[in-house]
Specification:
Layout: E1 2-5, H1 11-32, H2 39-56, E2 60-63, E3 67-71, E4 76-80, E5 84-90, H3 92-99, E6 102-108, E7 113-119, E8 123-129, E9 135-140, E10 143-148, H4 153-162
Parallel strand pairs: 8-10
Antiparallel strand pairs: 1-2, 2-3, 3-4, 5-9, 6-7, 7-8, 9-10
Helix pairs in contact: 1-2
Length: 167
């Protein structure tokens, strides 16, 4: 078993995350200074941030002999190793050629982009990215491809490629 955390945020995503995290704080400060109508938006934005952290942003990817396990703070998912037909590290330029244009469906900006990516060339792609480079592309037999950014992407690809289900 090998564990790979979600990669550290790229500078652009980190800057956007800091801005978004400051938003409920600013709303709360404005509420405390007398703009009481901002209390509900402050709580609402904080609730959305919590939901993204707990249910959208995975903590880690765990490579087992027969499965790839994705772990979030409040859920987990297993992907059968047998369903993975190809896995490779892909850069931004190669990704653009692979998918064409894309539109994110899900959470984006806060700690990364998580959920679905609708693309002109590949349709829906499952996406869990915290960087704007060093992606890992996972093809699955008859299922949506995945785009993820684990730490140490080359080592992750090697681990998942070398791991064979036990017979």
């Amino acid at each position: 078993m090998m564990r790979f955390r979600l990669a550290r945020m790229s500078p652009l995503i980190r800057a956007f995350t800091i801005f978004l995290l400051a938003l409920p704080v600013a709303l709360l400060v404005a509420t405390l200074l007398g703009t009481h109508q901002l209390a509900i938006p402050a709580v609402f934005v904080a609730a959305i941030h919590s939901w993204v952290w707990l249910r959208f942003r995975p903590r880690e990817f765990v490579v087992h002999g027969e499965t790839l396990e994705v772990i979030w703070p409040l859920k987990w998912r297993e992907v059968s190793r047998d369903s993975i037909t190809e896995i490779r590290v892909i850069d931004r330029l190669a990704l653009r050629k692979e998918i064409g244009w894309g539109v994110r469906i899900g959470a984006g900006g806060l700690w990364g982009a998580f959920g679905w990516l609708w693309t002109t060339k590949r349709g829906i792609v499952q996406m869990y990215v915290s960087r704007t480079d060093c992606f890992v592309w996972i093809e699955r037999d008859g299922k949506r491809p995945w785009l993820i950014t684990p730490e140490n992407p080359q080592q992750f690809v090697r681990a998942l490629s070398d791991t064979r289900p036990a017979m």
